[in-house]
Specification:
This protein is α/β, with parallel strands linked by helices. Strands 3-2-1-4-5-6 form a 6-stranded parallel sheet, sandwiched between helices. Strand 1, helix 1 and strand 2 form a beta-alpha-beta unit. The protein is globular.
Protein backbone atom coordinates (compact mmCIF):
# COMPACT_ATOMS: atom_id res chain seq x y z
CA UNK A 1 0.00 0.00 0.00
CA UNK A 2 1.56 3.33 -1.00
CA UNK A 3 2.08 5.78 1.82
CA UNK A 4 3.07 9.41 1.39
CA UNK A 5 5.07 9.75 -1.79
CA UNK A 6 8.48 11.47 -2.01
CA UNK A 7 8.09 14.97 -3.40
CA UNK A 8 10.13 17.11 -5.77
CA UNK A 9 13.31 18.58 -4.28
CA UNK A 10 12.66 20.63 -1.16
CA UNK A 11 13.81 20.96 2.43
CA UNK A 12 12.52 18.10 4.57
CA UNK A 13 13.53 19.18 8.07
CA UNK A 14 10.49 19.04 10.32
CA UNK A 15 9.63 22.25 12.12
CA UNK A 16 7.86 22.54 15.47
CA UNK A 17 4.15 23.05 15.00
CA UNK A 18 3.02 26.61 15.62
CA UNK A 19 -0.09 28.76 15.40
CA UNK A 20 0.96 29.96 11.94
CA UNK A 21 -1.95 29.63 9.45
CA UNK A 22 -1.31 28.75 5.83
CA UNK A 23 -3.22 28.77 2.56
CA UNK A 24 -3.42 25.32 0.95
CA UNK A 25 -4.29 25.69 -2.74
CA UNK A 26 -5.15 23.14 -5.39
CA UNK A 27 -3.24 23.48 -8.67
CA UNK A 28 -5.20 22.46 -11.77
CA UNK A 29 -8.37 24.50 -12.16
CA UNK A 30 -7.44 26.75 -9.21
CA UNK A 31 -4.01 28.23 -10.00
CA UNK A 32 -3.71 27.20 -13.63
CA UNK A 33 -6.10 26.32 -16.42
CA UNK A 34 -6.80 22.60 -16.23
CA UNK A 35 -5.04 21.10 -19.26
CA UNK A 36 -6.10 17.53 -18.32
CA UNK A 37 -2.88 15.74 -17.39
CA UNK A 38 -0.57 18.64 -18.08
CA UNK A 39 2.90 17.28 -18.77
CA UNK A 40 4.97 20.17 -20.21
CA UNK A 41 5.87 23.64 -18.92
CA UNK A 42 4.67 25.24 -22.16
CA UNK A 43 1.13 24.14 -21.27
CA UNK A 44 1.07 26.28 -18.11
CA UNK A 45 -1.52 29.07 -18.12
CA UNK A 46 -2.10 31.03 -14.92
CA UNK A 47 -5.73 31.80 -14.17
CA UNK A 48 -6.22 35.59 -14.17
CA UNK A 49 -5.88 37.14 -10.70
CA UNK A 50 -4.05 34.17 -9.17
CA UNK A 51 -0.64 35.80 -8.82
CA UNK A 52 -2.18 38.87 -7.21
CA UNK A 53 -4.11 36.70 -4.73
CA UNK A 54 -0.92 34.85 -3.78
CA UNK A 55 0.92 38.16 -3.37
CA UNK A 56 -1.84 39.29 -1.01
CA UNK A 57 -1.21 36.19 1.12
CA UNK A 58 2.55 36.76 0.94
CA UNK A 59 2.09 40.36 2.11
CA UNK A 60 -0.09 39.15 5.00
CA UNK A 61 2.63 36.69 6.09
CA UNK A 62 0.53 33.61 5.24
CA UNK A 63 2.58 30.77 3.66
CA UNK A 64 1.07 29.45 0.43
CA UNK A 65 1.29 25.69 -0.15
CA UNK A 66 0.12 23.77 -3.22
CA UNK A 67 -1.42 20.33 -2.62
CA UNK A 68 -2.42 18.49 -5.78
CA UNK A 69 -3.53 15.06 -7.00
CA UNK A 70 -1.48 13.99 -10.03
CA UNK A 71 -2.82 10.61 -11.09
CA UNK A 72 -1.32 11.18 -14.55
CA UNK A 73 1.87 9.72 -13.06
CA UNK A 74 0.15 6.47 -12.08
CA UNK A 75 -1.63 6.39 -15.45
CA UNK A 76 1.71 6.70 -17.26
CA UNK A 77 0.81 9.98 -18.97
CA UNK A 78 3.95 11.66 -17.64
CA UNK A 79 6.89 10.75 -15.43
CA UNK A 80 7.69 12.04 -11.93
CA UNK A 81 10.59 13.95 -13.46
CA UNK A 82 8.31 15.61 -16.00
CA UNK A 83 5.92 16.56 -13.21
CA UNK A 84 8.76 18.14 -11.22
CA UNK A 85 9.86 20.10 -14.29
CA UNK A 86 6.36 21.57 -14.55
CA UNK A 87 6.35 22.29 -10.81
CA UNK A 88 9.61 24.24 -11.09
CA UNK A 89 8.27 26.16 -14.10
CA UNK A 90 5.14 27.14 -12.17
CA UNK A 91 7.27 28.33 -9.24
CA UNK A 92 9.31 30.49 -11.62
CA UNK A 93 6.22 31.84 -13.38
CA UNK A 94 4.72 32.91 -10.06
CA UNK A 95 8.00 34.39 -8.79
CA UNK A 96 8.26 36.44 -11.98
CA UNK A 97 4.83 37.84 -11.08
CA UNK A 98 5.98 38.62 -7.51
CA UNK A 99 4.16 35.66 -5.92
CA UNK A 100 5.97 33.07 -3.79
CA UNK A 101 4.99 29.51 -2.87
CA UNK A 102 6.28 28.09 0.41
CA UNK A 103 5.96 24.51 -0.82
CA UNK A 104 4.30 22.12 -3.24
CA UNK A 105 3.10 18.57 -2.51
CA UNK A 106 1.59 16.04 -4.91
CA UNK A 107 0.05 12.58 -4.83
CA UNK A 108 1.05 10.50 -7.89
CA UNK A 109 -1.28 7.59 -7.12
CA UNK A 110 -4.57 6.28 -8.47
CA UNK A 111 -6.20 3.64 -6.24
CA UNK A 112 -7.30 1.35 -9.06
CA UNK A 113 -3.74 1.29 -10.46
CA UNK A 114 -1.35 1.81 -7.56
CA UNK A 115 -3.60 0.82 -4.67
CA UNK A 116 -5.00 2.96 -1.85
CA UNK A 117 -2.83 5.64 -0.32
CA UNK A 118 -2.96 8.24 2.41
CA UNK A 119 -1.96 11.21 0.27
CA UNK A 120 -4.62 11.42 -2.45
CA UNK A 121 -7.11 14.16 -1.63
CA UNK A 122 -9.51 14.15 0.14
CA UNK A 123 -6.95 12.32 2.26
CA UNK A 124 -5.05 14.63 4.59
CA UNK A 125 -1.56 13.09 4.76
CA UNK A 126 0.06 15.74 2.54
CA UNK A 127 -1.46 18.55 4.60
CA UNK A 128 -0.09 16.99 7.77
CA UNK A 129 3.33 16.57 6.12
CA UNK A 130 3.36 20.22 5.06
CA UNK A 131 2.39 21.27 8.58
CA UNK A 132 5.30 19.28 10.02
CA UNK A 133 7.81 20.60 7.52
CA UNK A 134 6.75 24.25 7.72
CA UNK A 135 5.44 24.55 11.27
CA UNK A 136 1.80 25.31 10.35
CA UNK A 137 -1.50 25.36 12.22
CA UNK A 138 -3.88 23.28 10.12
CA UNK A 139 -6.92 24.31 12.14
CA UNK A 140 -6.33 27.99 11.31
CA UNK A 141 -5.56 27.50 7.63
CA UNK A 142 -7.36 28.12 4.34
CA UNK A 143 -8.16 25.26 1.92
CA UNK A 144 -9.13 26.27 -1.64
CA UNK A 145 -9.86 24.34 -4.80
CA UNK A 146 -12.31 23.77 -7.62
CA UNK A 147 -13.48 20.36 -6.38
CA UNK A 148 -15.01 19.19 -3.10
CA UNK A 149 -12.00 16.92 -2.43
CA UNK A 150 -9.83 20.07 -2.25
CA UNK A 151 -12.08 21.74 0.31
CA UNK A 152 -13.26 18.87 2.49
CA UNK A 153 -9.93 18.42 4.35
CA UNK A 154 -10.94 21.54 6.30
CA UNK A 155 -13.77 19.52 7.84
CA UNK A 156 -11.22 17.00 9.16
CA UNK A 157 -8.35 19.32 10.05
CA UNK A 158 -10.21 22.49 10.97
CA UNK A 159 -9.75 25.79 9.22
CA UNK A 160 -11.69 27.35 6.36
CA UNK A 161 -12.62 25.49 3.19
CA UNK A 162 -13.62 27.50 0.11
CA UNK A 163 -14.72 26.10 -3.23
CA UNK A 164 -13.88 28.30 -6.22
CA UNK A 165 -15.91 26.64 -8.97
CA UNK A 166 -14.52 26.11 -12.45
CA UNK A 167 -16.60 25.24 -15.50
CA UNK A 168 -15.83 21.57 -14.82
CA UNK A 169 -16.97 21.63 -11.17
CA UNK A 170 -20.02 19.35 -10.79
CA UNK A 171 -23.13 21.16 -9.61
CA UNK A 172 -23.55 18.61 -6.80
CA UNK A 173 -20.14 19.63 -5.44
CA UNK A 174 -21.12 23.30 -5.54
CA UNK A 175 -24.25 22.45 -3.58
CA UNK A 176 -22.26 20.42 -1.08
CA UNK A 177 -19.77 23.25 -0.54
CA UNK A 178 -22.61 25.74 -0.13
CA UNK A 179 -24.16 23.54 2.56
CA UNK A 180 -21.02 22.49 4.43
CA UNK A 181 -18.29 24.99 3.61
CA UNK A 182 -18.04 28.18 1.53
CA UNK A 183 -18.15 29.13 -2.15
CA UNK A 184 -16.32 32.11 -3.67
CA UNK A 185 -16.22 33.45 -7.25
CA UNK A 186 -12.41 33.65 -7.37
CA UNK A 187 -9.25 32.85 -5.46
CA UNK A 188 -8.87 36.55 -4.70
CA UNK A 189 -12.33 36.65 -3.11
CA UNK A 190 -11.55 33.55 -1.04
CA UNK A 191 -8.30 35.11 0.17
CA UNK A 192 -9.91 38.44 1.03
CA UNK A 193 -12.64 36.71 3.03
CA UNK A 194 -10.13 34.56 4.89
CA UNK A 195 -7.91 37.52 5.81
CA UNK A 196 -10.93 39.39 7.19
CA UNK A 197 -11.63 36.61 9.68
CA UNK A 198 -11.00 37.74 13.27
CA UNK A 199 -8.52 34.89 13.85
CA UNK A 200 -6.32 36.30 11.08
CA UNK A 201 -6.29 39.81 12.45
Amino acid sequence: MPGVTPQCSRATTSQPLSRQPAAFLDRDGTLITDAHYLSRPDQLRLIPGVSRAIRTLNDAGVPVVVVTNQSGIARGYFTPEEYCEVERALDEMLRDAGAVLAGSYHCPHLPEISGPCECRKPGVALFRLAAQEHGLALDRSLYVGDRWRDVSPALVLGGTGVLVPASSTPSAERDRATAHSMVAPSLAAAVESFLREPSQG
